[in-house]
Protein backbone atom coordinates (compact mmCIF):
# COMPACT_ATOMS: atom_id res chain seq x y z
CA UNK A 1 0.00 0.00 0.00
CA UNK A 2 1.30 3.45 -0.95
CA UNK A 3 1.79 5.96 1.85
CA UNK A 4 -0.92 8.55 2.27
CA UNK A 5 -0.05 11.77 0.49
CA UNK A 6 0.91 14.80 2.49
CA UNK A 7 -0.89 17.73 0.96
CA UNK A 8 1.11 20.87 0.35
CA UNK A 9 0.35 23.64 2.79
CA UNK A 10 0.82 27.08 1.24
CA UNK A 11 2.89 29.62 3.08
CA UNK A 12 6.43 29.63 4.34
CA UNK A 13 9.28 28.60 2.10
CA UNK A 14 7.56 25.55 0.59
CA UNK A 15 7.61 25.41 -3.20
CA UNK A 16 6.13 22.97 -5.69
CA UNK A 17 9.61 21.56 -6.29
CA UNK A 18 10.38 21.09 -2.60
CA UNK A 19 6.98 19.48 -1.95
CA UNK A 20 7.29 17.18 -4.98
CA UNK A 21 10.85 16.20 -4.03
CA UNK A 22 9.84 15.35 -0.46
CA UNK A 23 6.68 13.52 -1.57
CA UNK A 24 8.48 11.42 -4.17
CA UNK A 25 11.25 10.50 -1.73
CA UNK A 26 8.66 9.61 0.90
CA UNK A 27 7.09 7.26 -1.64
CA UNK A 28 10.40 5.55 -2.31
CA UNK A 29 11.55 7.23 -5.52
CA UNK A 30 15.35 7.54 -5.64
CA UNK A 31 15.92 11.09 -6.87
CA UNK A 32 19.71 10.96 -6.99
CA UNK A 33 21.22 11.67 -10.42
CA UNK A 34 21.52 7.99 -11.32
CA UNK A 35 18.71 6.67 -9.13
CA UNK A 36 16.07 6.48 -11.81
CA UNK A 37 13.32 7.96 -9.65
CA UNK A 38 12.77 10.92 -11.96
CA UNK A 39 12.42 8.61 -14.95
CA UNK A 40 10.13 6.23 -13.04
CA UNK A 41 7.84 9.07 -11.95
CA UNK A 42 7.90 10.54 -15.46
CA UNK A 43 6.86 7.20 -16.93
CA UNK A 44 4.11 6.67 -14.34
CA UNK A 45 2.72 10.21 -14.59
CA UNK A 46 3.01 10.78 -18.34
CA UNK A 47 5.09 13.91 -17.72
CA UNK A 48 8.31 14.22 -19.75
CA UNK A 49 11.39 13.53 -17.63
CA UNK A 50 12.82 16.97 -18.43
CA UNK A 51 9.63 18.57 -17.09
CA UNK A 52 9.82 16.47 -13.90
CA UNK A 53 13.41 17.68 -13.44
CA UNK A 54 12.35 21.31 -14.00
CA UNK A 55 9.50 20.91 -11.49
CA UNK A 56 11.91 19.51 -8.91
CA UNK A 57 14.25 22.47 -9.47
CA UNK A 58 11.35 24.98 -9.42
CA UNK A 59 12.51 26.02 -12.87
CA UNK A 60 9.19 26.33 -14.71
CA UNK A 61 6.87 23.54 -15.76
CA UNK A 62 4.34 24.21 -12.99
CA UNK A 63 1.47 24.91 -15.38
CA UNK A 64 -2.07 23.70 -14.53
CA UNK A 65 -2.01 20.78 -16.98
CA UNK A 66 1.30 19.45 -15.63
CA UNK A 67 0.19 19.92 -12.04
CA UNK A 68 -2.98 18.03 -12.92
CA UNK A 69 -0.87 15.08 -14.04
CA UNK A 70 1.20 15.30 -10.85
CA UNK A 71 -1.94 15.36 -8.73
CA UNK A 72 -3.44 12.42 -10.59
CA UNK A 73 -0.24 10.35 -10.43
CA UNK A 74 0.14 10.96 -6.69
CA UNK A 75 -3.59 10.73 -5.97
CA UNK A 76 -3.76 14.15 -4.33
CA UNK A 77 -6.23 16.99 -4.89
CA UNK A 78 -5.15 19.49 -7.54
CA UNK A 79 -6.27 22.65 -5.74
CA UNK A 80 -3.50 22.73 -3.09
CA UNK A 81 -0.90 22.35 -5.85
CA UNK A 82 -2.42 25.22 -7.83
CA UNK A 83 -2.32 27.40 -4.71
CA UNK A 84 1.26 26.38 -3.91
CA UNK A 85 2.30 27.23 -7.49
CA UNK A 86 0.64 30.64 -7.19
CA UNK A 87 -1.79 29.88 -10.02
CA UNK A 88 -4.83 30.53 -7.87
CA UNK A 89 -4.89 32.64 -4.71
CA UNK A 90 -5.55 30.79 -1.48
CA UNK A 91 -8.34 33.26 -0.70
CA UNK A 92 -10.33 31.91 -3.66
CA UNK A 93 -10.33 28.34 -2.41
CA UNK A 94 -13.66 27.35 -0.95
CA UNK A 95 -13.36 25.89 2.50
CA UNK A 96 -15.76 23.23 3.70
CA UNK A 97 -18.43 24.55 5.98
CA UNK A 98 -19.82 22.78 8.99
CA UNK A 99 -23.35 21.48 8.74
CA UNK A 100 -25.60 20.02 11.37
CA UNK A 101 -26.31 16.33 11.69
CA UNK A 102 -29.87 16.91 10.45
CA UNK A 103 -28.54 18.79 7.40
CA UNK A 104 -26.09 15.98 6.65
CA UNK A 105 -28.76 13.32 6.92
CA UNK A 106 -31.12 15.36 4.73
CA UNK A 107 -28.36 15.79 2.13
CA UNK A 108 -28.07 12.01 2.06
CA UNK A 109 -31.83 11.70 1.60
CA UNK A 110 -32.39 10.22 5.06
CA UNK A 111 -35.50 11.92 6.38
CA UNK A 112 -37.54 9.32 8.24
CA UNK A 113 -37.04 9.58 12.01
CA UNK A 114 -36.47 5.81 12.38
CA UNK A 115 -33.86 5.82 9.60
CA UNK A 116 -32.13 8.88 11.06
CA UNK A 117 -31.97 7.18 14.46
CA UNK A 118 -30.57 3.99 12.90
CA UNK A 119 -27.84 5.88 11.02
CA UNK A 120 -26.88 7.90 14.08
CA UNK A 121 -26.80 4.76 16.22
CA UNK A 122 -24.40 3.17 13.73
CA UNK A 123 -22.22 6.29 13.52
CA UNK A 124 -22.06 6.59 17.30
CA UNK A 125 -21.17 2.91 17.63
CA UNK A 126 -18.32 3.34 15.15
CA UNK A 127 -17.05 6.48 16.90
CA UNK A 128 -17.22 4.85 20.32
CA UNK A 129 -15.54 1.66 19.17
CA UNK A 130 -12.12 1.13 20.67
CA UNK A 131 -9.77 -1.48 19.24
CA UNK A 132 -9.47 -4.65 21.23
CA UNK A 133 -6.05 -5.29 22.71
CA UNK A 134 -3.88 -6.99 20.10
CA UNK A 135 -6.33 -6.16 17.27
CA UNK A 136 -4.23 -4.72 14.43
CA UNK A 137 -7.09 -4.37 11.92
CA UNK A 138 -7.99 -0.85 13.09
UniProtKB/TrEMBL annotation:
Superkingdom per UniProt: Bacteria
InterPro entries according to UniProt: Cro/C1-type_HTH, Lambda_DNA-bd_dom_sf
Domain HTH cro/C1-type: residue ranges: 39-81
SUPFAM superfamilies: lambda repressor-like DNA-binding domains
Pfam families the record matches: HTH_3
CDD domains on file: HTH_XRE
Protein name listed in UniProt: Helix-turn-helix domain-containing protein
Taxonomic lineage: Bacteria, Bacillati, Actinomycetota, Actinomycetes, Kitasatosporales
Amino acid sequence: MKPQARLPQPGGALTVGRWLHDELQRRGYNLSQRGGGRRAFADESGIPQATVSRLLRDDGGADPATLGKVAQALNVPLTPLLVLAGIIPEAEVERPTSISTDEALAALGITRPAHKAAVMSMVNALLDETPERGDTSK
